[in-house]
Write a structure and sequence with these properties.
Structural class: alpha/beta
Radius of gyration: 23 Å
Number of strands: 15
Number of helices: 11
Strand content: 15-25%
Largest sheet: 6 strands, antiparallel
Oligomer: single chain
CATH superfamily of the largest domain: RecF/RecN/SMC, N-terminal domain
CATH architecture of the largest domain: Up-down Bundle
Order of helices and strands: EEEHEEEEEHHHHEHHEHEEHHEHEE
Strand order of the largest sheet: 2-1-4-5-6-7
Shape: globular
Distance between the termini: 25 Å
Mean pLDDT: 88
Low-confidence stretches: 236-245, 247-264, 269-277
CATH class of the largest domain: Mainly Alpha
Helix content: 40-55%
């Protein structure tokens, strides 16, 4: 929960201080007055990144050299005082007076979940957008997952640099030996990342489909499955090659992740991402399949100068009536599915960390009356601290516990 916030030279806001209550806080005012900027500032202090800017320098007000953000959070009964000073050449990040290396170190203690009209891109947009969403809540579950993600991206970058150099020059530093080392590291990290992603997908798929049913009034259903070409390849592999009978029983007892192959099969599975034909997938199986995949692609990768398979190529398939929603879903269906995904993130954060701050950026304007009521009901059920940015308080489907006017 966030208690207070102060902003200096943050986009259009300067010298502003805000205090928030535990319930529903409504931030209102005319368009362009800085309502979304308040939500962005809270998200930055909570999550360690902006949902609007790739570079924090973009947040600095026009014709200013720096911006300063300060906020106090309550976390597990303790206070977290955070401050960020972003300059043109240097950033200073502090938590409870101690200096941190980067603002990203804020992540994982006082979570926040943003809902905004542009969330429709979670359905309509490229697979990268869904992977980013999946990886964010993956990090809610464990700091170890965040390390696997960082290490995988680092090795992928190094391997791509080697391949790019090889394509250009016909050789690369370290020769084939370095390439094989990088490939081995990519396989190890890729298998770990696939395992935790699929496990998370199994956890959140029934949550997403359940919320979607509520938002649609029970008249519409969707399915949600993790989609990867490497998992399709597993269909041709015999699990007995990789696990003996005792291992298979142990995996089944642990409830290991299931999978949906890439392509149309992902939309044929039942709600919740399960399929009666699914089999448990171990890291060993994934390592073997990934090794075979990369071995088969080595020649073409050296021609193209890029890694052509791995978790960085995967997607989350949300389907209606057997077809992916990114192609056939209506505006209403896609908005409902995006909101369901955000509420799933709320549940994961609450389970593994603490109840998140829920940030709503004028989301009700795009919803019909029934969906507005369903979203309002879910918000009340979550019992999270809520910050809502809206131009019209009177159109909200619930009463505010506190109002903040940016027109004052």
């Amino acid at each position: 929960m966030i208690g207070s916030l102060s902003l200096a030279h943050v986009r259009s806001l300067d010298g502003r201080e805000f205090r928030f209550v535990p319930g529903i806080n409504v931030i209102h005012g005319k368009n362009g007055c800085g309502k979304t900027t308040v939500l962005e500032a809270v998200h930055l202090l909570a999550q360690g990144f902006s949902f609007r800017a790739h570079d924090l320098k973009e947040v600095i007000a026009w014709n200013q050299n720096e911006m300063i953000l300060r906020g106090s959070f309550e976390f597990d009964g303790r206070e977290l005082a955070r401050a960020v000073q972003v300059g043109r050449y240097k950033n200073i990040v502090k938590e409870n007076g101690a200096q941190l290396r980067a603002v990203s170190q804020f992540f994982g203690k006082a979570p926040a979940v943003i809902m905004q009209p542009s969330d429709i891109e979670l359905l309509r947009g490229a697979p990268e957008i869904r992977r980013r969403w999946l990886d964010e809540i993956l990090c809610f579950r464990s700091a170890a997952n965040a390390k696997v993600l960082r290490d995988y991206k680092r090795v992928l970058q190094q391997r791509n640099a080697w391949l790019k150099q090889y394509k250009k020059e016909g050789s690369a530093p370290g020769g084939q030996e370095i390439f094989e080392v990088l490939t081995h590291q990519l396989v190890e990290l890729g298998a770990k990342l696939w395992a935790v992603r699929m496990n998370l997908s199994n956890e959140i798929s029934p949550i997403i489909t359940g919320y979607y049913r509520r938002l649609s009034g029970g008249v519409d259903t969707i399915t949600c499955n993790y989609k990867s070409s490497i998992l399709k390849d597993l269909d041709a592999l015999d699990a007995a090659v990789f696990m003996d009978e005792d291992e298979l029983e142990a995996v089944a007892a642990e409830g290991s992740p299931q999978y949906a192959p890439e392509g149309g099969d992902a939309c044929e599975n039942g709600a919740g991402g399960s399929n009666t034909n699914d089999a448990p997938v171990s890291e060993e199986m994934l390592r073997n399949a990934f090794t075979e995949k990369l071995a088969g692609l080595e020649f073409i990768e050296k021609l193209q100068g890029i890694t052509m398979a791995g978790p960085h190529k995967d997607d989350l398939a949300l389907c209606a009536s057997g077809y992916e929603m990114r192609s056939v879903g209506s505006q209403g269906q896609c908005r409902s599915a995006a909101i369901a995904m955000r509420f799933a993130a709320v549940d994961v954060a609450a389970r593994y960390l603490t109840k998140p701050v829920l940030l709503l950026d004028d989301i009700f304007a795009e919803l019909d009356v029934d969906r507005r009521g369903a979203v309002a009901s879910l918000i009340r059920e979550k019992d999270c601290q809520v910050l809502i940015a809206t131009p019209q308080v009177e159109e909200l489907p619930f009463k505010a516990d506190a109002e903040i006017s940016l027109s004052d």
